[in-house]
Amino acid sequence: MSTPHTNKDNTAAAEVVKPTNFLRNIIESDLDKGTYAQRHWGGNPGDATHHQQGIVDPAKIRTRFPPEPNGYLHVGHAKSICLNFGLARDFDGVCHLRFDDTNPEKEDQEYVDSIIDAVKWLGFDWKDPDGHENLYFASNYFDFMYRAAVYLIEQGVAYVDEQSAEDMKANRGDFGRPGVNSPFRDRSVAENLARFAEMKDGKLPDGAAVLRAKIDMASPNINLRDPAIYRVRHAEHHNTGNTWCIYPMYTFAHPIEDALEHITHSICTLEFEDQRPFYDWLLDHLREGGLIAAPQPRQYEFSRLHLTYVITSKRKLKHLVDSGLLAGWDDPRMPTIVGLRRRGYTPESIRNFCERIGVTKDYAWIDYSTLEGCLREDLENKAHRAMVVLDPLKLELTNWAEVFGSADHVEPCSLPALPHAADGEAVPERHFTIGREVWIEREDFAEVPPKGYKRLFPGNKVRLKGGYVIECTGAEKDAEGNITKVLATVVPDTKSGTPGADSVKVKAAITWVGVQDGIEAEVRLYDRLFTDPQPDAGGKDYLALMNPDSLKTVTAYVEPSLKAARPDDKFQFERFGYFVADRKDHSADKPVFNRATGLKDSWGK
Ligand code: ATP
Ligand code: MG
């Protein structure tokens, strides 16, 4: 749905099509081959027996989005959400929302709630064809994870290592040097089982021992050099309380979570590519042992979103919030979903953005203007137009009483609220009035016009958009020489939309708001948060690169149609861009509007 306006913006010009990608190809091929056709689904997550007793899975594929509830989701997560939920939707599958809460610290209900909200707001759900909700918490799988660890010990492929942390690190080797076997590596199964039970029973302090998979200390892939799979951690967990004092490592927990949920395609970012051999090693063992259902999940990697002028590390974003540099996770400058939402982004614009940037394995930076282009494109035919004056200067029409018979006379005016009508509907209109005094932009008057200036200067005529042609006659100044009021005369019979209105030719039409019906409003002019396109790449200090002018607040006058604005309503303020009524602070008595984006791509210009 391109429009002439957005076509000027080269980033938004591409058609919204669903390009194929390597993941779609893999899924199509799996569906053709029937790889997953015979899978059974036990109705909820579980082991092999549980799923075998279930029905043939009505979901053709299962994907998952597995956030750790330790922060708010950001635009990078949106890419992963749109990908995983989008593939499930397009291939008659289901995408699970799984909280990866196996780490006892840092996790919080506030984050859980915000993540659920964000995924719903983006327009996705996690329901089976029968309506069952696939919302899961990885911490509910701790019992099975323990059982899986015991099984590995019994098979002779896991052992309790009690080397010091330093020795363990030194003995791991590095890229050029193979590792050295731990002196604990050849413990008997019985000894390992006993020692692991002691770990679980709280007999060992934090850091005293870890359970390791026994694979190959000389493997060229360091992730296969006997990776740790369980550690001792005497910490309370938000879900399981003090039941456990040992916790699984992420690399052990994640494949098991996927397997219990019978995920078919486990899609993650490229950093996990080197973990895939361990993912397969672990699930091969558990499947061969009959612990998890077949066919087991497969992991696929794609490159994460790198967006210019944005940071997407939860840790760094948390710092911006905790240090008070920004107003919260939903500060409209934050690249979080709640921040984008408050800034005026729509779910459609974010989904289109994710579609447009595609899915590859390439390392690439996406220009921020691509995201803005998607928002403009979505709002172009949806957001009602309005005139506002952001830097108000009063203008008086000195012949008003003479022309209209009274200084208090007001004339009704109207303009279209949208450039085009929706199918079968009339173009909506907005109404306002003009009287003796109007607010204009300070920059629309020049006492001495610079070359090429077409707006107000003594002797020049312009049109007040949707109102009359006026002719500037001069200005009033204060003692310091500042302009306090512009003076002009109204040209009779030139009201927009009346016969003969165009008989007087002008070179410019300026935006304005009537003094008698304009509404005072707070307008928050947001700009990019960082001055550097890659603020945290290559070890840069992102805090030193923050844009000091990322927020400018002005008291503006807005046209009376905006009296009806409700929080979250979006508008195009003519000539200034797209704005949203702030979802937290806006009220009819105290209107507050946030700038979402300018009208055209001005980045780097
Ligand atoms: P951070 O390092 O900022 O905490 P994370 O990747 O650890 O982020 P998770 O909660 O573990 O955050 O992420 C959930 C999912 O979102 C993961 O599957 C992860 O791959 C994906 N994801 C996170 N950041 C991005 C990104 N920039 N682009 C694409 N996917 C991402
Ligand atoms: Mg993570």
TrEMBL record:
Sequence intervals crossing the membrane: none
Record domain Glutamyl/glutaminyl-tRNA synthetase class Ib anti-codon binding: where: 383-489
GO cellular component, one term: cytosol
SUPFAM superfamilies in the record: Nucleotidylyl transferase, Ribosomal protein L25-like
Enzyme Commission number(s): 6.1.1.18
Subcellular location: Cytoplasm
Coiled-coil region list: none
Residue numbers covered by motif 'KMSKS' region: 311-315
Residues engaged in binding ATP: E68, P69, N70, T269, R304, L305
Domain annotation Glutamyl/glutaminyl-tRNA synthetase class Ib catalytic: ranges: 60-380
UniProt cross-references to Pfam families, sorted A to Z: tRNA-synt_1c, tRNA-synt_1c_C, tRNA-synt_1c_C2
Catalytic activity: tRNA(Gln) + L-glutamine + ATP = L-glutaminyl-tRNA(Gln) + AMP + diphosphate
Binding locations of L-glutamine: D100, Y250
Family that this chain belongs to: Belongs to the class-I aminoacyl-tRNA synthetase family.
Annotated HAMAP family: Gln_tRNA_synth
Assembly notes: Monomer.
Protein name as it appears in the record: Glutamine--tRNA ligase
